[in-house]
Amino acid sequence: MATTGADGLMQASSSHGNLPLVRRLEAVGFRAWPAASVVYDGSWQVRLTGSHPSKRLNCVVPLDPSDYRDADIRIEKARKRFEHYGRPLLIRETPLAPRQLLENLSQSGWSRFETAEVMTVDLTCLELPDTLDHIPTHDIGRFIDVYLTVQQEDPALKPALAEILSAIKPTCGFFTAEHLDEGPMAAALCVQDNDLAGILSFAVIERMRRRGFGTELLTAALRWARINGARTAWLQVNATNAPALSLYSKFGFRTAYEYHYWAIEKDIP
């Protein structure tokens, strides 16, 4: 549900928290889910991917709380760039977004329409459940087939996902759970970037949820990351996804910060 600009601004006025941690998690997040086109306007990162509609791959992300100069001009410049890609302009608000920019958006008819939580857990002392282990596959195509089936997404997205996954520079673990008769059950991508490991594209097919498949696959991914030297795991999850939040909490994940999307009302997905 979208919030009004005023409501969003009120929520955004809370403490920014640990900005160095936010900057580091944002940086590894960008590397873990790379956009096809990335340009900078000052400290604003402009991310666009013509082949895939993911909001994280198609948004403007301000990365310096003090960088608000010529905001109206820069927003219009970004809007035209997004228009060339056939995309509505979205702005992703993290604790690094300038307060003045949020005030401008609020006063200009923009609304906040989605909130996600960035969560972390210390892997060095994490006690993982005793479950069946899964070995990561190196077959990107197979992983994508499982993920699209589990998520019930359009198979036509396979080439775009293959391009995105192939562009990831850090070490990747592609985890899948399949049953001989039932078919694909779950999928998870773990991207290890030095001592940080990100869990992405984690999903369990709807009819098999709450039967342990998610726990098994998440456990396998976290064990793999820890064995390979990761000390902290992170992930991003929609704030309304109660089942996922419950699962992550059981593993010890805690919210480091939230981010939000803003758009003009007519462009809200």
From TrEMBL:
The keyword Chloroplast does not apply. InterPro entries: Acyl_CoA_acyltransferase, GNAT_dom, Rv0428c-like_C, YpeA/RimI_acetyltransf. The keyword Acyltransferase applies. One of its GO terms (molecular function) is acyltransferase activity. SUPFAM superfamilies: Acyl-CoA N-acyltransferases (Nat). Gene3D superfamilies: 3.40.630.30. Pfam families: Rv0428c_C (PF24553). Keywords: Acyltransferase, Transferase. Residues 130-269 form the N-acetyltransferase domain. This is GNAT family N-acetyltransferase.
